[in-house]
Amino acid sequence: MTLAFVHHSRRPELWNRLTEEFAGVVPEYNLHGDINAGFWTRLFTDFPDHQFLLHDTGTDTVLGAGRTLPRTWDGTPTGLGTGLDASIAAAFRDHDAGAEPDALCALGIEISPAHQGRGHSTRLLAHMAAMARSAGLSHVIVPVRPTWKDRYPLVPIDRYAAWTRPDGAPFDPWLRTQVRQGGCIVASVAESSRITGTVAEWEAWTGMAFPDDGRYVFPGGLAPLDIDHTQDRGAYWEPCVWITHDVREAPQAPPSAP
What we know:
alpha+beta; single chain; 9-stranded mixed β-sheet; Aminopeptidase
């Protein structure tokens, strides 16, 4: 296996494979965030060098995908903002104003189902750090979607983020991986990414029926969904946990390829 990182600016056609080969990696509802309509396609037109794939050049297989945006950050927890949506908006605002970025914001790391459990997410995270370092940025900042939070949708995100294992490591696997890679848990945000849709859309996205108004937990959801039939609307705020990586420190080597 010969691994390489390929940026969208070099081989954009590889990204066409993600819809089929990465199906189910991201819950369907997460593909319909309110922020997407205004900014998502601009990731590839305005920042093609910041979107990349982990590629097996020998078999021409796509193993993983990483999406990032450069943005300004003052180095404080407050300056991180209120999560994913605000960070995306801030990055494009900085870009349009010609502001010099200080940090690289990780929007997502996805691994193909056929290639999970092989350390590839750590490789993508390490590549983000290398990208930030080469651009003269001080940090990679990550509004993390915790892996196991959907098992505890009624637990507030700040409590969940504070849970630890007996060895003191974070309870959540993705938080734990990032901390092991040198990341610091800085803040928890209950309202990071907004997703709204009609009741029918939410029923299609979740595979559930919502026969009455009220709050519902649903498969893959990190927090409850609010359904209002009078307004024909389902509204959901996805939480996040902010983790920061100081890339000015000596980088940790990613795990070796299998």
